[in-house]
From TrEMBL:
Enzyme class: oxidoreductase
Family per similarity comment: Belongs to the LDH/MDH superfamily. LDH family.
Official protein name in the record: L-lactate dehydrogenase
Keyword Transcription: no
Lineage: Bacteria, Bacillati, Bacillota, Bacilli, Bacillales
Regulation: Allosterically activated by fructose 1,6-bisphosphate (FBP).
A Gene Ontology term for the protein's cellular component: cytoplasm
Positions bound to NAD(+): 15-20, 40, 45, 70, 84-85, 100, 123-125, 148
Record-listed beta-D-fructose 1,6-bisphosphate binding positions: R158, H173
Subunit structure: Homotetramer.
Domain annotation Lactate/malate dehydrogenase C-terminal: ranges: 150-314
Amino acid sequence: MSIGITKTRKVVIVGTGFVGSSYAYALVNQGAIDELVLIDLDFERADGEARDLNHGMAFGSPMRIRAGDYDECADADLVVITAGANQKPGETRLDLVAKNAQIMKGIVKQIMDSGFDGIIIVATNPVDVLTQVVYKVSGLPKERVIGSGTILDTARFRYLLSEYFQVDSRNVHAYIIGEHGDSELPVWSHVQIGGLPLNVYGQIENYYQDQDMQELFENVRDAAYHIIERKGATYYGIGMGLARLTKAILNNENSILTVSTYFEGEYGLNGLYLGIPAVVNQFGIREILRLRLSDQEQQQLEHSATILKDLLNQIGY
Ligand SMILES: NC(=O)c1ccc[n+]([C@@H]2O[C@H](COP(=O)([O-])OP(=O)(O)OC[C@H]3O[C@@H](n4cnc5c(N)ncnc54)[C@H](O)[C@@H]3O)[C@@H](O)[C@H]2O)c1
């Protein structure tokens, strides 16, 4: 598959709840694509979102938006899955994973039955596990099944570091890797502010022991809990993150983003999806970046992988 600049850039979103519609809104505002199709189990909801977004057209860049069905995936460049069930009272995390894995299976079958031959992005949680389910069920090459991974966590990390040091977050380079969830880790050894490592710019010698840095990371890791406590869900940040990823793919940017990617021996890990910086372009994942992790970071990454492997084993993937 190759995306020429004269070709219509078409995206299909499956699941137009908070996350799907925030992503659609970001795409419209950024004029990132030419054609957008919204699919939801609840067609009326998708149709309502399409109508609402179309009414902003006079204020933004022209593009075509409509609610539709899976046959629309046939000529799409990108299908982005943001559909999923939420945890019900009394339901365990594992129940929810198994339920969402079943939902993914059904969705992917319909996408592939259309003749789709593009790239799939998954944002539904637990995103690393469900991206693996989509990869296995779709039969697409690993490069073309991408999870949103830790793109949002990395953005939160850069934002909080920028606040702490009072430097524009675009000049802060830092990664959160591993599971998008409780076992994720900050790669302190590679944090750079204006090209300077943390011990030079921030004069922080031992980032693992430093109380401020520890608290800062905890605020990144627990950000979703803090937002959900206050407003019930998180969606703007991930919506913008998905738009960023979409542009990296459709504009063939070779951007480095911490997406969830399939490991085949990198960092000594095999057979699972995890958040890691990777080069993203029109073919999907070009390569995984090989960071020189400290021993502590390598151990934490392996711990994160073990947790995800257990979950994958429990649901049979
Ligand atoms: N990856 C991230 O960083 C990140 C951040 C925030 C939220 N999320 C995840 O995104 C997912 C969606 O969150 P939300 O707040 O938008 O939820 P939501 O409940 O608002 O929306 C989910 C939508 O999916 C639809 N849906 C359910 N089953 C479907 C199916 N089989 N086919 C088509 N549509 C279906 C529902 O009708 C609903 O419109 C959740 O799993 C959430 O945890 C991920």
